[in-house]
């Protein structure tokens, strides 16, 4: 392939099965991921994880911290920032409970996978350091699901800072995938005093990289990524600082992006509406 687009070998058969009506689409689970930014002398850098090469799904691919919504993420927490009604409208969901669960998942997963916590003791502060043994014990308890995010926030007397997040995009896993996610992408700035760590069990390494360098590596076939990652990186290139990116979040299009598969001249054409660069033609002989 000419770039680093991750393309599972089983996709062609599953696409054909879906087109033939032989495959029933799995209902996608809700998920959230955060593009964590920090300012450097050369511009904005984004924190990325390199997934373990041994993983069946997107092994070796670069991605952002994130994961599925926990059923307990809708439990009430101390809240700062836009109201849940505002978040529900922005995220395109029908109820405030869903909005809270998605935002809480974004904050929780960022803490679980990068050690960064968007919360503070008051509505206008953020914790300064999350590297102590007690913090690590709580982080691991969240990962193991022995501790709910609401209980974690409550026990530490913290306020969730939803105002530090900006909703950026929404992508839904193609219908022919056996594991599907409806994923909301957020942007956030690295809080002062905190530092990202490689604590994810799914990542073999982490890197701070400029969006331009990341997409250049993808274009050269040096960095493996999935379409949503590439697309969001390309949109981030326009902003020199994390503050600029956060300010621009409100104007980003949150229309869900869902890949489509169609039959055309004996081929199955796979496309992501509005993102023509990811179009693939699937035939008996392979892809192009």
Automatic annotation (TrEMBL):
<dbReference type="InterPro" id="IPR039121">
    <property type="entry name" value="NUDT19"/>
</dbReference>
<protein>
    <submittedName>
        <fullName>NUDIX hydrolase</fullName>
    </submittedName>
</protein>
<keyword id="KW-0378">Hydrolase</keyword>
<dbReference type="GO" id="GO:0016787">
    <property type="term" value="F:hydrolase activity"/>
</dbReference>
<keyword id="KW-0464">Manganese</keyword>
<keyword id="KW-0479">Metal-binding</keyword>
<feature type="domain" description="Nudix hydrolase">
    <location>
        <begin position="28"/>
        <end position="231"/>
    </location>
</feature>
<dbReference type="InterPro" id="IPR000086">
    <property type="entry name" value="NUDIX_hydrolase_dom"/>
</dbReference>
<dbReference type="InterPro" id="IPR015797">
    <property type="entry name" value="NUDIX_hydrolase-like_dom_sf"/>
</dbReference>
<keyword id="KW-0460">Magnesium</keyword>
């Amino acid at each position: 392939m000419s770039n680093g687009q991750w393309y599972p070998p089983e996709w062609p058969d599953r696409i054909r099965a879906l087109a033939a009506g032989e495959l029933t689409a799995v209902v996608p689970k809700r998920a959230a991921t955060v593009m964590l930014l920090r300012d450097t002398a050369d511009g904005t850098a984004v924190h990325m994880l390199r997934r373990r090469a041994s993983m069946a799904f997107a092994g070796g691919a670069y991605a952002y911290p994130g994961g599925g919504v926990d059923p307990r993420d809708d439990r009430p927490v101390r809240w700062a920032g836009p109201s849940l009604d505002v978040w529900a409208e922005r995220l395109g969901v029908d109820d405030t409970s869903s909005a809270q669960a998605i935002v809480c998942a974004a904050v929780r997963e960022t803490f679980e996978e990068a050690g960064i916590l968007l919360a503070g003791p008051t509505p206008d502060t953020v914790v300064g350091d999350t590297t102590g043994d007690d913090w690590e014990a709580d982080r691991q308890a969240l990962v193991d699901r022995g501790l709910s995010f609401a209980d974690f926030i409550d026990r530490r007397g913290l306020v969730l800072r939803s105002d530090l997040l900006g909703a950026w995009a929404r992508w839904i896993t193609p219908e022919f995938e056996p594991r599907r996610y409806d994923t909301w992408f957020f942007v956030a700035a690295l809080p002062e005093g905190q530092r990202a760590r490689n604590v994810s069990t799914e990542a073999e390494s982490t890197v701070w990289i400029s969006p331009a360098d990341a997409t250049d590596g993808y274009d050269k076939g040096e960095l493996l990524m999935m379409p949503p990652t590439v697309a969001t990186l390309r949109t981030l290139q326009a902003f020199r600082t994390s503050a600029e990116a956060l300010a621009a979040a409100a104007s980003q299009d949150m229309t869900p992006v869902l890949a489509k598969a169609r039959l055309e001249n004996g081929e199955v054409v796979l496309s992501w509406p509005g993102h023509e660069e990811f179009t693939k033609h699937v035939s008996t002989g392979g892809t192009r």
